[in-house]
Design brief:
By secondary structure, the chain is an alpha+beta fold. Helices cover 41% and strands 18% of the residues. It contains 35 helices and 29 strands. An eight-stranded antiparallel β-barrel has the order 1-2-3-4-5-6-7-8. Strands 21-28-27-26-22-23-24-29 form an eight-stranded mixed sheet, with helices on both faces. Strand 1 and strand 2 (63-75) form a beta hairpin. Helix 6 (286-308) packs antiparallel against helix 7 and helix 11 runs parallel beside helix 15 (520-539).
Length: 1023
Amino acid sequence: MTSISLATFLVLLGCLVLPGEASAQRDLPPEKGGETYSLGMPPVYKGRSGFEMQWYRPQNNSELAGFYNLGMSKDLGSPVVGIAALRLEGYVGLRNRKIDGGGRALFEIPSFFVGGGVDYNGSDDVWDFLWTLDLPLRRGGVFGRGTTLAIRWLPARDQTFSLGINVPLWGRNIGATRPKSDNVRLDYRDPFRLELELQDQLLKKALTNLGERAHWLAMMTQPFAEPEGADAAEAMAPVLTGLKAHIDSTDSGFPRGHTLPEEIRSYHEALDLAFSLASGDRNISDAGRAMSVKARAILLDEVLVPYNYLLGQRKKHDSLISMVAIAQTEFASWVLSDTKVIDQHARQAFYVFQTLCDVMEENRALLRDRWEDSRFVWLPLQYALTPDQHDSQTELDEIIAKSTKQPFTDENRVWYVINEQFQWEMVRSVRKAEDYHVLWIHDFRGLNGEGKPDAVAYAQTLNYLEAMIERVSAFDETGKMPQYFILLDQHYFEINKARLWLRLLSAPLDYEMDLPKGFEDWELRLKETQDRLRQAVSESMLLQVAQSQYGEDWLKNLIKVHVNITNPADPSFFSWHSVGILPIPDNMMRDHRKIAFYDITEEDPFRGMAMFTGMGIGEHYIGPNWEDRAIMIQGSGALAVKDAARTLLMAQGYEPEEIPFPLRKISKPVNYGQILVAEHQARNPDWLEHRGSVMQLHNETGFHDKPVNAAKAVLYSLMPPGSILKVPDSLWQSYIYASLLAGSAQRGCKVLVIAPTLDSAPSGAAPTLARAHGLMGRLIVFSNEMEETLTEAGGLLEVGLYAPKQGVGDIAGRFKQSDKSRPNWLRKVYPDNPAVNAELKNIDVLLDSLGYSINYLSADDVEVKPKIHLKANFFASGLAWKKLMERPELGSILRAHVEYLAMQAAPTDTSGTAPDVQDVPEGLKASWEKLIHGLLDDLTPSEKEELIYYFSVGSTNMDYRSMVMDGEVMVLIGGWQSLYGFIDFLLLPGLCEWLETTEDLDALLPPPSGMIRAMAGLMKLTL
């Protein structure tokens, strides 16, 4: 036993304290001999070692043994899926103080921690069947580093049983790439409760009324959850029956019925009255109203906003109690220090606030039960905000900033990127980088849909090599070599075979590309380019001197793309709460962000550029069939992406000294603000005092913060009555977002929901389409059944399916289809504009005069079935939309916009000049300047306060996966710069089929079978 115990100790010590590279030498910039750390690519073969104690029972004689094991495995298919792997391992040790050993061959299912196979014992020369179970027991492993409790059972060997610890032998940062907790732990407190026997019957009645109004406010701002059933009308009937009965009921307080605007009004009046009564007045008084205002402000800051920030995250000890304790203390402090109420009135006022907090907790529990998951609970901000507190751009900006813990930034330069333009801008960004370049992408496609090497990825790979050649050639003069980084989630890395190109990019001086037969020209071109790179390196005197001092490894670390495959498959991170059915590894949680940025620095807000998109690198994203958008930002609003990249690397187990130097945080110079002021003053012409603001938001992968959710929920629930909300998406599946939008339609907003048809869906998986069909059907039923209520409020809720009849580059065809698509409700949204109508009729002539021809980066001989992959939303207040749509200058803007689109078309051959998104025609700029000046000149000061515009672009889908699992990014633009997407979103509804009945839906998006629908419901978080 002594030898076994010693062996156990040594094995565990060796496995758990594996040697790492010395960080002191690494923590130097490359120009001083430092080497840049990177995760690299996950190993194809995985090693594992460990120690096990075995109870061996031949012929009922129990024998104790201790074995050291060493083995290697290979996944069959994607290791992220982890559904199959083969393992070979050997073991050696002592049994009854004699040397014993053998080998095993196992088939494993890593995601479920189980395996089975054969065990050969050399001493006894026997083969037996073996069951295995490798349990991490806690997230990250039993002792960290992915260690597992290893259980082995040989039933045919007289029930031989073993127990041990296994440890992965190699792979970067195993057990350190996910959060240690799968929930947000809310503090539990037991705050003092004031118990009062209220003698004032009016106050009792007011508090009862407050609770009733708060209940209906929750139920009507989120009028439905996920009613089950194949038939949408039947599923929605109980919800709508109760809702309509409540709305139609009248009484002295609701002579016009219990509509949502009336419920909001009555709720705030009830709160004002309760505080007035508590203060000794018999009706609503100034003192009571002031107390109510302060109470709502504290409620917003200390309860609603902190809790709602967690939308998308699972809460442990789900309750408002810890937040309420803070809020009640704040309110009591204010009452005692800043008011002059007498003690009895102070106690009553505190009791009213305590009751208000109780009401919030009751409704949190109500919504939790309604959604059946703490991740989807959103407390209505109308509990704290009156309608006049969220009806201006400034007010909404402040609410969004508070709700997301992120500021809006001013003085940004913004450009809008359409479809294939992204590929050109990606090429340009790599070549422009002087200090560093980061491609943070979900798809660098190795093989295309036909299983052949991807042409776009090949071209982008060549572009990286050409950029390195240019920078190496200039190295003697500049002394600088940009560091190139690719951040790619392992799920997409594996499924899209990205290893094909990334092996070359991670070792361009050494790697020999071997492409399949038929691609000899590509292979030759790559080798020739590599030869030119090696020649440039050999001709650089400064590089040769540096290599002589720092070594060849330093040189190879300098001249490469640093590949970081993030969220590597690691079954030791598991949770019962990923899908709520089985303990599933976090592997299904992916980084879905699509970003390219370069040279962004705290030292200069206008150095470098960031581009946010829904696209990836591959043939899949070009041609006539891909509808997508991106946004490019230069300015202080871009800086957050550098912080986000550093956050990602730290989450992947990087130590602070391992963070690449270009991505480390540095202090802003003292004149940073002056640089922004100079940018403002240097505008030519300075046609607007405030162009707009930019906010950048990141949902981190897995069980991390999800601020994008909060921003969306604010916009979907707080845009003022009369607003236009256009919300297209390729994966419309989120009932919580849909419910919030339906609530806003009841307040008088005009909501246009756009989803794909069967033909235009990028993801044609049956469960995915089943979820979309179910949700769209329920929205149609809600819209039809609530039509009278919506109309009386001035609201609208329409469902459209994207169904263009031409490719994404057919400018004239798209505008003509949009002009002809005029559903009955169109006039409620689009006021007639003769100038726009005239330009629409002249599109063909205009394009002919420009010599425009439809052209794509890919071949044109493909079937035209455009897919909508748009992750952009457009919002405008009612007045902002109406006044803009009526302007006669809009005609000239439309014409200039068409000219710009034609200019941005792909060149007809490789010798053509790549279009530059930043080359915005002067005519287009002048037209916008004229329109906005004219609009502002015609508005009164109070009308100007009503102008609200927002535009969002990014990677987020309208599904639960984007809300709770995946890493996502969204850029939100507020103010005039939001109009970059205006013409685009003016056109989009005309490319849709607008649905009046569920039969219309069935024709374009066939209903699923019962089994598929049930499966989709179980899998809703993972689709």
